[in-house]
Amino acid sequence: GGVVADALGRRQGVRLCAVSFMLGSLLMGLAPGFGLVLGGRFVVGVGTGLSGVINPIYLAELAPSSRRGQLVTANEILLTMGCLGALITSLLLEHTPNGWRL
Length: 102
Prior knowledge:
The chain is mostly helical. It has 4 helices and no strands.
C-alpha cells in the first residue's frame, strides 16, 4: 500500500482501490462458478489491502489538524463495521438453499 501510494500518489492510489473493488465485485457477482468467485475475492482483497494503507494517509493529509484524528478514526471504525456487516450477511445466507445466490 505504501509503495503504491508513493509511486502513484494518494489520489491515484485511492482510484486504484476503487477500480479493484468494482472489478472484483463484478467478477464475484457474475461468476458462473467457484473459480471466478475466488478470483473476484482475490481482486477485492488486493483493493482492501491497498485501501487499508492509502485511505488513512490520504485522509490525514487532507484533513485540518484539528479534525485529523476524528476522520481517520471514523474511517477505521466504519471499515470494521463493514467487515462485521459482511460477516453477519454471510451467517444469514449460510443455510439458504441456493447459497449466496438469492
